[in-house]
Amino acid sequence: MQTSSDRHAYPAHWEADVVLRDGGTARIRPITAEDADRLVSFYEQVSDESKYYRFFAPYPRLSAKDVHRFTHHDFVDRVGLAATVGGEFIATVRYDRIGPAGAPGPAPGDEAEVAFLVQDAHQGRGVASALLEHIAAVARERGIRRFSAEVLPANTKMIKVFTDAGYTQKRSFEDGVVRLEFDIEPTDRSLAVQRAREQRAEGRSVRRLLLPGSVAVIGVGRGPASVGRGILGHLREAGFTGPLYAVNRAFEPERAEIDGVPAHRSVREIAEPVDLAVVAVPADRVPEVVAECGEHGVQGLVVISAGYAESGPEGRERQRSLVRQARAYGMRIIGPNAFGIINTAPGVRLNASLAPEMPRPGRIGMFTQSGAIGIALLSRLHRRGGGVTGVTGVSTFVSAGNRADVSGNDVLQYWYDDPGTDVALMYLESIGNPRKFTRLARRTAAVKPLVVVQAAGAPQGHAVRATRLPHATVSALLRQAGVIRVDTITELVDTGLLLARQPLPAGARVAILGNSESLGVLTYDRCLAEGLRPQPPHDLTTAASAEDFRAALARALADESSDAVVVTAIPAVGEGAAQDAALAGALRSAALANPAKPVLVVHVELGGLAEALSAAASTGPQPGGSLPQQPPLPGASAVTGTPGVPPDAEATAATSTPPGPETPPAPETPPGPETPGDPETPAPRLIPAYPAAERAVRALAEAVRYGQWRREAAEPGKVPEYEDIDEKGAAALITGLLDRGEGLTPGAEDTCALLARYGIPVRRAVPAPTADAAAEAARTLGYPVALKATAPHLRHRADLGGVRLDLADEEQLRRSYAELTELFGSPQEVRPVVQTMAPRGVDTVVRSVIDPAAGAVLSFGLAGAPSQLLDDMAHRLVPVTGREATSMIRSIRTAPLLFGWRGSAPVDTPALEEMLLRVSRLVDDHPEVAAVTLEPVVVAPHGVSVLGASVRLAPPPVRDDLGPRTLPAY
């Protein structure tokens, strides 16, 4: 427990775990008076050269005065942070607030001098860069806006830390010292630098787990039925390429090995380095094991042991302690309660899991949180020709259990630039940081497909932030980030195999051909249901030969009016394997001639044709030379696979084109089952076969939507600037309103004033507590007017008769006032208001809310029943771009009402888009704006009118995606 060194309380919220450049972890925390001995020990381990760079003179040891100064801080004007591993300092940073003359000074001075010292053994790990991010965030919190630093010219490493951070800098040279000055407000460049570092660090932390040089299994029982003994066997049978060690404290002292693997009673007894430890001991013994691993320098843990958060409050606390202990030693954890990890790369061959068989090498990455779902995924890929015996196999597999530390976000960081993974499949029972996941998914999906099944609720073992958004809304937000969102494991595999084996379709036009009219019509109907544009099925009749299929497929692929082809096939009576093989060869031959379009097969049995398609794949490259590959989408290029694989139960036909959508090139990848050793030899493109039309078409529809998203993502929209926005004026108004108390809902006048600063005028509504007051308000506003009941149970309920429109004079107004009060009660109950009439149009609603899990979300729909009863709302994450605003309006089911449905006049959708963009800017610029509701927003043929508005303010939430890099707190 840390205590305050001076007059301010210890800021525990500054503590954070971070991932360093090499994938290890460190803890950053404030330095206190209790750290005197740690500081002295740390300083003794720093080289004389580093000390000279820090103090500009020989400084062999710290005096008592120095130690007091560097450990006593007020946490406002003087702050020190330390990076620790194993409880010991590895680096420090401090700032001292300075005045205009450069001398130490208190607030309100907004400049501080900053200085670093990093232990030589830890230089080059990115420690200083991480500390700079955190000390800058602390300084901003304390009202500091600018850092200055003096550095010796020879200290190029420290100069690089500052110059590479992305802040706007001024540099000067005086008296032999380089002086750097820079604002510490985040910029687009500094955020880009920070996120690039985050990706490299987190990706390498997963790489250390998936590509270990050596593995120790802790908990290898002497009996054959123990979990640890089983995992050790799986590692041996998979052919792990590095040293293996078996550990069990119950081993006899004289035991030298078990199952041919060196045996030890403790990790400490192993003389060689251990990169990865698989822990399969009872939960109460895990802390002892973690301590031994940390002291031995183990880089990462896979904790198979159960008995943690999934078992209740006591287990949840045990899980927190596990994560804190492992991170203190710089280790990351997969688990606890994990199924394990697999890496099929030829140079690794790691099966540190409960899966008894090693999947075949392939280019599909898989992540699950549930062990049962992991088994189901591997099983389905096995049956579909994508796993144990198939061609399109697994590159890496992670089943994270309670995912207390390593999560799907971390694995996405690894897959993003992993040349061995073309397609990512994820089963997510919970998303711990949806805002970060959405950001990472958008970046990953721009270069390789990401297919996700998202469960509706989180299991007990997962610590997740509560969300106020419906499950369907979260799913919609994921789709906008390029995530291919499917509902079942079957759809996950179906879609993944198509994307791994076929090019992306250029559009939604689908040609259908086959030897069954009924199956063709069924496929046609399913295409319509999925929003595709199918052509009338081409029936080849049941008498069609393999040559007829080849010629029809060749014509369909060559036809510029189609973007994809679905082939339907039923077995001919009396024909067998020979006919199936001939048909598979014919399809392969036709696809070979036009590799730019995807081809799918729907067949009615799981045997013959599927086996023949797989057998065709195993024949490897066909004569005729290489073919031109599909042109890559912007920012990506094609990656090829490898020929020659055994047949499987439901596999695929081959052509000489890339196995999946365009992904970054991987020339350094060693040859393997899906990676050709000869770059001049094209790899087979596999034709996926499906046992039902609806499965094939659903997978194709997902590929079409993803292809469209990729094309749009290549030219992202922009967040527009509006010259009439008064951001500073709005900030001052918000600050003043918040001074009145938290959770403030401003009155109508303040709400209108705030919205007006962002160019969002609200039509004035004047309260009318009496009929005379209503008449006076109408004379002031000018006729015609509207009279509305604003009581909560009547607001926005025109269907109940609480609104009177187009009142042309005082007589109509008084009559309507009397009707309202007679129908609904006294004026105090009805709360009537008088408002000027707006041009006729379509009533819509615009809302924004800051969700604790997803962040700021903008929503749009038609007012009334469409949004309330049918939930016909569109959602986008803030900030919204111009392109997103356009698609938002058009994505609701009732959008035709805005575009002249049944002869009505089209409304001014450009003005509506501008309204959405202005609300988005308001919420993005001012995180204190917790919620905005504009209802109704009347969209007329010319212009929009906001008739009702409400705003809720609150202290700004912690925006961890914009702050310094940090791991989730435990």
pLDDT below 50 for ≥5 consecutive residues: which ranges? 1-6, 386-390, 614-683
| Approximate shape | flat
Helix content percent band? 25-40%
Strand order of the largest sheet: 1-2-3-4-5-6-8-7
Q: In angstroms, what separates the terminal alpha carbons? A: 15 Å
Strand percentage lies at: 15-25%
Question: Mind sketching the topology for me?
Answer:
Blueprint: E1 16-19, E2 25-30, H1 36-44, H2 48-55, H3 64-71, E3 78-85, E4 88-98, E5 111-118, H4 127-141, E6 146-151, H5 156-163, E7 169-174, E8 177-183, H6 188-210, E9 215-218, H7 227-238, E10 244-247, E11 257-258, E12 261-264, E13 276-279, H8 286-296, E14 300-303, H9 313-328, E15 332-334, E16 340-343, E17 350-353, E18 361-368, H10 371-384, E19 394-399, H11 408-416, E20 423-428, H12 434-445, E21 450-454, H13 471-480, E22 484-486, H14 489-501, E23 509-514, H15 517-529, E24 533-534, E25 538-539, H16 546-558, E26 564-569, H17 577-593, E27 599-603, H18 608-617, E28 652-655, E29 685-690, H19 693-713, H20 727-738, H21 748-756, E30 765-767, H22 771-781, E31 785-789, E32 803-807, H23 810-824, H24 827-830, E33 832-836, E34 842-851, E35 855-862, H25 865-868, E36 873-877, H26 882-891, H27 909-925, E37 929-939, E38 944-946, E39 949-953
Parallel strand pairs: 5-6, 9-10, 9-13, 10-12, 13-14, 14-15, 18-19, 18-20, 20-21, 21-22, 23-24, 23-25, 23-26, 26-27, 27-29
Antiparallel strand pairs: 1-2, 2-3, 3-4, 4-5, 6-8, 7-8, 11-12, 16-17, 16-19, 28-29, 30-33, 31-32, 31-33, 34-35, 34-37, 35-36, 37-38, 37-39
